[in-house]
Amino acid sequence: MSVDCVKVDMEGAEKMTSKKRVLIVGAGAAGTAAAYSLSKHPEKFQVEVWEKLSVPGGVACSSNIKGDAFVNYGVQGGTPSYRNTLIMMKEFGFKTSPVHMMISFGKGKTHWTNYAKSPLTEKLKNEIKHFEDVLKKINRFEFFYIFVPMYKVLKWNGFSEDFANEMVFPLTALFFGTGNRTPYVSAAIMARVFLDEDLRLFDYDSELLLSQSPEMFAFPKLEQMYETILRKSGVKICLNRPITSVKRYGTHVSVIDQDGKTATFDEILFACDAETVLKLLENPTFFERKALGNVKYYNDLILTHEDDNYMNKHYEVNKDKDQYFVRTDPTDPAKIEMSFNLSNYQPQLKNSNRNIYQTIYLDDNLREKYWTVDEVKKDKVLLETWWRQFSHSWTHFAFTVPLMRYLQGKKHTWFCGAYTLINTHEIAMISGLAAAHRLGAPYPFHHDPLAAKQFDQYLLTIHGKPRNFGCNKMTLLSCILAPLMALFALFSLLLRFCFNRKS
Fold this sequence. Notes:
GO terms for molecular function: oxidoreductase activity. This protein is about 35% helix and about 20% strand. It is α/β, with parallel strands linked by helices. It folds into two domains: about 20-95 and about 220-285 and about 405-465, FAD/NAD(P)-binding domain, CATH 3.50.50.60; about 105-210 and about 295-390, Polyamine Oxidase, Chain A, domain 2, CATH 3.90.660. Strands 8-7-16-17-18-15-19 form a seven-stranded mixed beta sheet. Helix 11 (about 275-280) runs antiparallel to helix 12 (about 285-295) and helix 16 crosses helix 17. The protein is globular. The termini are far apart. Residues about 5-15 have low confidence and may be disordered.
């Protein structure tokens, strides 16, 4: 896909059209969703998408490997509750492949799965039963537990280190991609995995913790999917075009790219990571500095390989069944490593007669002490890629999420991406649709009850707005929540001030 990106004479353009000129920075899930929604109203918007990479997709990537095959990485798939993602894919002719989640945790005496009994679940059965009650309490008092890391809750309620390190933390890392910050994840988020009626992945098993193999789906070739959606949406796409600075004025936004070319837009929509936003913005606002500056990122290494010996050494591997593997480091059980058997997950590999794995090594600051990447045979490595991942620690939900509504729309600037709430592909998609909606492109999937419900919840939380103003439940709720969220934000700022002084 090649696009001629040239400087536009805005004075002349303004004389010819009254369309709102919008720049979307980033062509990942959020940017693609925003571009798609805005493109449905060509009479209102003139849209450009600038992406620093040579392909769209952001952290959702595809790559060819030897043997005339390809793998997806960064994003593997989702659940049937990803309604916004699934509807958009269907509109552009993309199908998902159903799979049933099979997980292998631990090794030897710490091994357990979501599809069979194990000595570990028998040993910890009393704690498993107790944990169900604790999750219900967390859900009941969610407002308080947003500010409490999971390790604190486990400690307060007398859970053993074995239960925390071998069951709770690996499970949390798998669900949210939290890396080695897993103990610091907000307890309220973990409770939602089991108790949220719309979003939960599993029904809690009071004897085994997990005893189901829920249906998931695997994506088609991610690069092709994003390229097709953007191309068919009809927006102007500029690949290989990173930005160096963004200046905001009273009536417009001025953007300079790496070649020194300047373009002017009415609105800018940041669909990239929070770090990049702060680097690009000249004179960020107080709330932008506080909210975006609090998003913490870590470098992870994704190694795609075919080393059966490595997998058998570090995991309990059922090659015909298991898709996900999570293990704790034997010298420090709080440290985690994850792997996937892509041949049991990604549809293009299922009949390849190969076992192709991806192992994710978390946080490069821990490489020297904990990573076992050097044990993978070099001739078995198919692909080596780096992934910059944000942390789901309780501080994210305490110091970033409550402030996001006060950033949106200020100085012609909008923010979307999974970091605005929770690190899932669906949230990224919804965030882009929400920013487009606020710009004036009505939400396109109102006909699907679950998709609309998720969108409404996000819009209310991150933008502080109902989808439709008027005499309805969401408008009333937004009015009630507005002063409460203001107090919440104030409390967040005060808590952060105290937290920073203490550290």
